[in-house]
Amino acid sequence: MAKQNTDRTTIDLFATEKRAGRPKTNPLPRKEQLRVNKRNQLRRDRQKGLKRVELKVESSLFEALNELASGKGVSRSELIEQVLREYLTVSTTEPQR
Predict the structure, then answer these.
(1) Mean pLDDT over residues 49-63, rounded?
(2) How wide is the angle at C-alpha 42 spanned by C-alphas 36 and 48, nearest 5°?
(3) Distance CA 34, CA 43 (A)
(4) Which residue, of 4, 9, 75, 95, has the greatest Cβ tally within 10 A?
């Protein structure tokens, strides 16, 4: 009996044939990939001169920031940076009390 390429029921005839599928692109497990990616991101940020700042805000303020940022077409981080820059500009030009 001849081997037919359309016949997939006889697995032994196709044991050496590579099956189509998504290739494994990274040999590391997912948890390790995340650690490496985070380390690389922090390194890129450091090279750009960026520093990390974290703050906690009320959910209403958080939602307002999200809405304003999406309305302006920028990320929340970029919006907060703009607001801080504007505040610092105004604060440094005002006379001291």
Answers:
(1) 94
(2) 140
(3) 14
(4) 75
